[in-house]
Amino acid sequence: MQDIQQEFGLSYVFISHDLSVVRHVSDRIFVMYLGSIVETGPADAIYRHPAHPYSQILLAAVPRPDPEARRLRARKSADAVAATRPTADDMPSPLNKPSGCAFRTRCPIARPDCADSVPPLVEREGRLVACPYAT
Model's pTM, two decimal places? Predict the structure, then answer.
């Protein structure tokens, strides 16, 4: 695919839940939650420093071959992952999304005003992020 892409100057839309493959084949990434884009930007930037809480949780769950890096990452993200681990009761339906930010019911940094309106994609550090409280 990459050889054909380079030879003919093509672009691909590659959809996957396998983030290691996405990183390998993508220049730009769109992270989606319940059908809405929550973060988009250059692949390297999102992998190095994900801004949206959902992007952070997704990338924290990717297995890493380096045991030391994995231990450090596990300590940093254990609370966030535990706080957002879905149960049958709290997993929103794409057919009946929560009001405001669809991720707010699972978000470790959600605030009451997150229920008021869908956050727009706002430019932050060379990417677009749909969270006013993202780091």
Answer: 0.78
Closest by Cα among 4, 121, 100 to 55: 121
Say yes or no to pLDDT of 86 above 60.
Answer: no
CA-based max dimension of the chain:
50
| Residues 14-72 pLDDT 10s | 888 888 788 888 999 999 999 999 999 999 999 999 999 999 999 888 776 766 665 66
- E strand or H helix at 72: helix 67-84
H helix or E strand, kind and range, residue 31? strand 28-33
Q: Which domains does the chain have, with CATH numbers?
A: 2-129 (3.40.50.300)
Give the residues across from 53 on adjacent strands. Answer: none
Q: How far apart are CA 94 and CA 37, in angstroms?
A: 13
